[in-house]
């Protein structure tokens, strides 16, 4: 359904992004932020599914500045490679990848003339939270199991748009005491926890949990329908 285009970030960098268009006029737009595995087949499928719901959906390639064309699977060696890419991307000077996300938001808004939401998974969940707090043009954000979101420096941020956050109760990367502390510090954020592990939304991972994924998707679609109308 989708295809790759190139966006231009504020510093002139060319950012590939997977773009999926709805069948008719887009009712709004969704920016999809990848895990540590690149804009792979799973992220493309997520993006396509939002287009099928009537949204223009776009997934910028968050590793392009460190390794062009990164596309990983979910084996242990992919996890190791993805962690290395994430570390390199996080260490970029200045605005780093955040300007690539801003370029995707701006493109989505210009193309649709409507509101823009964001969803992200794992590292993308953290980037979604950071985007909701620091970038412009977002009307809603839905981070999934955002690694690092419960760190004190992240809890201290204040979102500029409505946020619905999804976590797994069995996620050993993000203990529930941290999730509970985040929720207590941010009563304005809707926080959901599921009897599931990290990565429960990804049907290509062993931790996939269909009931949790379906419920989180239902809640997220209702959230976007409300906030992006």
Give a description of the structure.
The chain has 229 residues and is an alpha/beta fold. The protein has one domain: 3-Layer(aba) Sandwich (Rossmann fold), CATH 3.40.50. It is 38% helix and 19% strand. The protein is built from seven helices and eight strands; from the N terminus they run βββαβααβαβαβαβα. The strands form two sheets. Strands 1-2-4-3-5-6 form a six-stranded mixed β-sheet, sandwiched between helices. The chain is globular, with a radius of gyration of 16 Å. 46% of the residues are buried. The mean pLDDT is 97.
In short:
By secondary structure, the chain is an alpha/beta fold. Helices cover 38% and strands 19% of the residues.
Low-confidence stretches: none
Please count the helical segments. 7
Instruction: Please give the alpha-carbon distance between the first and last residues.
Output: 24 Å
CATH class category label: Alpha Beta
Strand content is: 15-25%
Average pLDDT rating: 97
Taken in chain order, the helices and strands follow as EEEHEHHEHEHEHEH
Name a few traits of the molecule.
Rossmann fold; globular; single chain; two-stranded parallel ribbon; 6-stranded mixed sheet; 7 helices; alpha/beta; 229 residues
């Amino acid at each position: 359904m989708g295809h790759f285009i190139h966006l231009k970030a504020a510093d002139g960098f060319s950012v590939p992004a997977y773009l999926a268009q709805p069948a008719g006029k887009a009712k709004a737009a969704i920016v999809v932020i990848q895990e540590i595995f690149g804009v792979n087949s799973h992220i493309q499928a997520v993006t396509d599914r939002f287009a099928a719901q009537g949204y223009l959906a776009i997934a910028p390639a968050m590793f392009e500045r460190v390794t062009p064309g990164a596309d990983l699977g979910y084996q242990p060696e992919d996890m190791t490679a993805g962690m290395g890419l994430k570390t390199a991307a996080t260490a970029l000077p200045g605005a780093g990848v955040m300007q690539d996300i801003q370029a995707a938001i701006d493109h989505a808004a210009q193309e649709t003339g409507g509101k823009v939401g964001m969803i992200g998974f794992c590292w993308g969940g953290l980037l979604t939270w950071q985007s909701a707090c620091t970038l412009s043009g977002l009307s809603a954000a839905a981070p999934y199991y955002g690694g690092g979101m419960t760190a004190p420096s992240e809890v201290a941020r204040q979102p500029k748009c409505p946020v619905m956050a999804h976590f797994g109760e069995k996620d050993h990367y993000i203990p529930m005491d941290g999730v509970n502390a985040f929720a207590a510090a941010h009563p304005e954020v809707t926080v959901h926890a599921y009897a599931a592990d990290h990565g429960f939304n990804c049907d290509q991972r062993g931790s996939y949990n269909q009931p949790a994924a379906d419920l989180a998707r239902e809640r997220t679609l209702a959230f976007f329908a409300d906030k992006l109308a």
